[in-house]
Amino acid sequence: xxKHSILKKKTETSKKILTISYILAILLTIIxxxxxxxxxxxxxxxxxAGAAWLEVSxxxxxxxxxxxxxxxxxxxxxxxxxxxxxxxxxxDINNLLSNLMN
Length: 102
Hints:
Blueprint: H1 13-37, H2 43-82, H3 85-88, H4 93-101
Helix pairs in contact: 1-2, 2-4
């Protein structure tokens, strides 16, 4: 019997944190809406929901900044490889990378 290995794409930790943050924020918001409609005092939960959305926005900023930093070199190298050879000789790839990374 042959063993078949299934290749799973490993989910990044930052994506997991982002997903959990969204789920918590949405869940807390739903609880606040339900409490509001049934006239239950939920001031503390409202504060928690606001804090959860604040954390979601901070996680988004971190995640997208990280992705930008990781993907800029890949994009530049792809563009550099597509350049005609006469233009490639004129472009300093290190200078281009350092200017775009800052």
